From TrEMBL:
<protein>
    <recommendedName>
        <fullName>YecA family protein</fullName>
    </recommendedName>
</protein>
<dbReference type="Pfam" id="PF03695">
    <property type="entry name" value="UPF0149"/>
</dbReference>
<dbReference type="InterPro" id="IPR036255">
    <property type="entry name" value="YgfB-like_sf"/>
</dbReference>
<dbReference type="InterPro" id="IPR011978">
    <property type="entry name" value="YgfB-like"/>
</dbReference>
Length: 184
């Protein structure tokens, strides 16, 4: 069970749990959590659950209503982390960030801001050391996307340029994972 990828109902449980126990300082949705976990499994060093789990909640674990609720969220999280680690290490082509989708002026638009914010959150938790210039540029592309405030897309959004920037995120995450993997 720990090795099975999450399905739609599993992600719904995650989303409901994040909404139930989250606040302005916590991870707020499955997209952000996916980015967070991607950076965790890409990190140059292993980070203990005692460090990364409370960071999901802004630094403190929630006051769970039941132990089963906590257990279920932890198990789903570990399954997703394992899936991401396996994909990135064994079949990075299968890796696809969990970006959000929206419609803007009649066009489908992929939003990566929340995913990128989760990724940069984990980079900070993992305390990544300075990167060589090529990898630093990749991380900066992710960080720049995380800093965008696109809760409401501007009417004059250049959709093509936006989608090109978003399309660069997954290859950047793969390359950063491969870089750190080669350094371990």
């Amino acid at each position: 069970m720990q090795s099975q990828p999450l399905n739609a109902s599993d992600f719904e449980v995650i989303e409901n749990t994040l909404l139930k126990y989250g606040d302005d300082h916590s991870v707020l949705n499955p997209s952000e959590l996916d980015g967070y976990f991607t950076a965790l499994v890409s990190s140059p060093t292993r980070v203990d659950i005692a460090d990364w789990f409370p960071a999901i909640w802004g630094g403190q674990n929630p006051a769970w209503q039941t132990p089963q609720e906590a257990k279920q969220f932890i198990e789903l999280s570990v399954r997703h982390i394992n899936t991401l680690a396996r994909q990135l290490a064994e079949d990075s082509v299968a890796f696809a960030p969990r970006f959000e989708q929206t419609e803007h002026l009649g066009q489908d638009v992929t939003l990566a801001e929340e995913w990128c914010f989760g990724y940069t959150r984990a980079v900070a938790i993992c305390n990544w050391p300075a990167l060589p210039a090529p990898q630093a540029i990749l991380l900066q592309a992710i960080a720049d996307c995380a800093e965008q405030d696109n809760f409401e897309l501007p009417e004059d959004l250049d959709v093509v340029a936006h989608q090109q920037a978003v399309a660069a995120i997954a290859p950047a995450a793969r390359a950063l994972h491969d870089f750190w993997l080669s350094q371990r």
